[in-house]
Automatic annotation (TrEMBL):
Protein name per Swiss-Prot or TrEMBL: Coenzyme A biosynthesis bifunctional protein CoaBC
Originating gene: coaBC
Family matches, as PANTHER family: HOMO-OLIGOMERIC FLAVIN CONTAINING CYS DECARBOXYLASE FAMILY, PHOSPHOPANTOTHENOYLCYSTEINE DECARBOXYLASE
Protein purpose: Catalyzes two steps in the biosynthesis of coenzyme A. In the first step cysteine is conjugated to 4'-phosphopantothenate to form 4-phosphopantothenoylcysteine, in the latter compound is decarboxylated to form 4'-phosphopantotheine. Catalyzes two sequential steps in the biosynthesis of coenzyme A. In the first step cysteine is conjugated to 4'-phosphopantothenate to form 4-phosphopantothenoylcysteine. In the second step the latter compound is decarboxylated to form 4'-phosphopantotheine.
One Pfam entry name: DFP
Length: 402
């Protein structure tokens, strides 16, 4: 089979060196990559590096190999174009159809999916001109990944950092795996909220009540939604996974903190997917000092109180008309019977029911589930990667939003 053809555009930002890692991941996973840098990008990483790593010539000029008409052919033959980093200048040119070098000509001739991974200072990203250019590109069907928050050039910190190259690769892989533009971007223009991980309820300064959730399913849901064009808010409880490219990550620890973050984000969300394992109970009293072991004495019983039921709350009081709410049910016995009862009790639109155990679902790379719907339909998802379950959930959500 022919290798998928990927054009890696690189514009002139300090984050250009990180594109070398993205290039490595693309080539090692079986893609044929042609690097098309801008002239400014070559100030950061030289042409020889791009050519050596990709195995293909890298040039900025439309005047080289003119008989091959590169300014047209490269875009025409591509299965995917990804620009990383995409500077404010590059986004402006792409939005307005300017074509003064090989990369911008390639963007005009490409009829394949296009992914932009912006990187710039916070002020540039937040400028109305940039925001309008991003909105224009998204309306036309491009996937523009939200930049990450972190250290920028110099001493500056803020939103505008290039997402992790491995996470950009995951977006590219998912975009390539989907079909037509309508299928690829069925969540374009939507804002979705995903909770992930497991809450922890502190007993004392060193101990907590927690669970085995790693956050892998919630993070898979966030990545899948980004690749389908959504703006994603990920409320992450105690997960050590890398931030999904394009998601705005809100970090929490306890169930009360998760409730506050989810309710705030859900106020303007089209869909809320509660994949986090939220503790049902918390200790009634928090010990200010470490609970000591006393010789010859049994420990005092730990009294528990109920945590707020976030899923039931957002299901009963939808922040917006037509908002879709999805819950997760982790069961150990009578899985479907308990799931159906929970669906009726919680009042959500969809409930993902799966069996959990010490070595099952929590922390694993794969799972199986049944998605129960409020209309009585059931969608089984056979054992497989968690991203398959994520796409099944978004398929069902997208139909309801449509």
């Amino acid at each position: 089979m022919d290798k998928p053809k990927v054009v890696l555009g690189v514009s002139g930002g300090i984050a250009a060196y990180k594109a070398c890692e993205l290039l490595r991941r693309l080539t090692e996973s079986g893609h044929e990559v042609r690097v098309v840098p801008t002239a400014s990008a070559l100030h950061f990483v030289g042409e020889a590096t791009w050519s050596a790593l990709s195995g293909n010539p890298a040039t900025t000029e439309v005047w080289e190999s003119v008989h091959e008409v590169p300014h047209v052919r490269i875009g025409q033959s591509a299965d995917l174009v990804v620009v990383a980093p995409a500077t404010a200048d590059l986004l402006a040119k792409a939005a307005h159809g300017l074509a003064d070098d090989l990369l911008t000509n390639t963007l005009l001739t490409a009829r394949c999916p296009v992914v932009f991974a912006p990187a710039m200072h916070t002020e540039m990203w937040e400028h109305p001109a940039t925001r309008e250019n991003v909105a224009t590109l998204r309306r036309r069907g491009a996937v523009v990944i939200e930049p990450a928050v972190g250290r920028l050039t110099g001493v500056d910190t803020g939103k505008g950092r290039l997402p992790d190259p491995g996470e950009i690769f995951e977006v590219c892989r998912r975009v390539l795996a989907r079909g037509t533009a309508e299928q690829r971007l069925d969540l374009a223009g939507r804002h979705v909220v995903v909770s992930a991980g497991g809450t922890r309820e502190p007993l004392d300064p060193v101990r907590f009540l927690g669970n085995r959730s790693s956050g892998k399913q919630g993070y898979a849901l966030a990545r899948a939604a980004v690749a389908r064009g959504a703006r994603v808010t990920l409320v992450s409880a105690n997960s050590e996974l890398p931030d999904p490219a394009g998601a705005d990550v809100v970090r929490v620890s306890t169930a009360v903190q998760l409730r506050e973050a989810v309710l705030k984000a859900a106020a303007e969300a089209d869909a809320v997917v509660m994949a986090a394992a939220v503790a049902d109970f918390r200790p009634a009293r928090y010990a200010e000092g470490k609970i000591k072991k006393r010789d010859g004495q049994e420990p005092d019983p730990i009294a528990l109180v109920r945590n707020p039921d976030v899923l039931a709350e957002i299901s009963a009081d939808r922040a917006r008309p037509g908002q879709v709410v999805v819950g997760f049910a982790a069961e150990t016995d009578d899985v479907l019977a308990n799931g159906r009862a929970k669906l009726a009790r919680k009042g959500c639109d969809l409930l993902v029911v799966n069996e959990v155990g010490e070595h099952k679902t929590f922390g694993a790379e794969a799972s199986e589930a049944v998605v129960l719907a409020s209309d009585g339909t059931e969608t089984p998802v056979p054992y497989g990667p968690k991203e398959v379950l994520a796409d099944t959930v978004w398929d069902l959500v997208a139909r309801r939003l449509a």
